[in-house]
Each structure stands twice: as C-alpha cells, then as structure tokens.
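REQUEST FORM: STRUCTURE PREDICTION
Request ID: SP-0412
Submitted by: Lab K.M.
Chain count: 1
Length (residues): 198
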Amino acid sequence: MHIPERSRPYLFGALSGLLLTASVALAGQFFGTSTTFPRLSTFILTSLGIDLSSLAFAQVRDGALTGAAFPNWQLLFVIGIGLGAFISARASGTFHREHLPELWVSSFGSSQKTRLLYSLAGGSLAMIGARMAGGCPSGHGVSGVSQLGVSSLLAMAMFFIGGITTARFLYASPAAPVSGNNSSARSGRSDNTQGGLS
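STATUS: Completed
RESULT:
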C-alpha cells in the first residue's frame, strides 16, 4: 500500500497516539526509552564485578534505574523499536545497506573513525541531556506532551532548538560561491539539508 509522503507524518503520528493510548490502557505503561541505557550500563558494570550500591543513582527507588530492573517493559519496547523498523523496511522494500550517509560524506569525508568519534560524542551528550531533562523525545515528546505536561513542552522546545541548531552548524553550506556542476551539487546538498530539518 502506497502512502503519500505528505500524509505520512499525520497518519503515523495518529497511529502513535493510538498505540500510546492502548499501551496505557492495557499495560499501564507510557512510552520512554532513555532510562534503558543507564540501566544497561549499570548492568554491564555490575556483571564485571563493580559495586555501584553506594551511589545515589543506584539507590533511587530501590535500584529501579539500574540493571536490577531488567528484564522489564521498557527494555522490550526498545528492542521492539529496532526490530519493528527492520521488519517494516524489509517488508516495504526500502531496506538497504549504507556505508555512510551521503550528507555526512559531503561535509566530513568518508572516514569511519571520524564518524565513530562524532557519534560517541553526540550520543553521550544526548544521553546526559536526556537524564538531566528526566526523559527523551519519546518520553517527553509523546508521553509527556500527550498529558500536556509543562516540563515536557519545554523539553520538546529545547530538543527542537538544539537539534536544528546542531544540524545548521554541522551541515552549513559553504559561503563561497562555486561555478559549474559543483555549484549544482552544493545546491542539491543544501536542499537535502533543509528537507532533513522539516
């Protein structure tokens, strides 16, 4: 079934709302993913024999924010996001392997090491921010906003401001004009950047 591209945000947004309603009604669970990652980190450290019990983080709600909570609903939710996306891409015929995104290569080159360093730095900052904000885009943006939570509305505004600012900074088009085919190529890159932010 072909779904017009312009209709997808509205259709999938509505389906997400219905799924959240069903999740709360049937399982009493709101959407959220970011807590799974510190839980996984503490689970790995504890498995290596490192004692974290003296940390205040490990004592909150009797260890509910640590790996002691595994397995739990949110872990299955996070696994389901990746598994569901894979199945959907395969079923729709849109799945493909990509060495590095074209937009990234056009700005930073094809070095895997550079991509890895930026990913680690960005992921770490995003996770620290999510924990400071008490939630991620799914927790605040879907679950929190659906309840008209003021903190979630503010968090979502900051997510968008931070994301757009970072993308503008990383993928800013060169100011110097170029001629010929290179000009067209750069113009196309700029268009792609705009589309990714819309």
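NOTES: Residues 175-198 have pLDDT under 50 and may be disordered.
Reviewed by: T.R.
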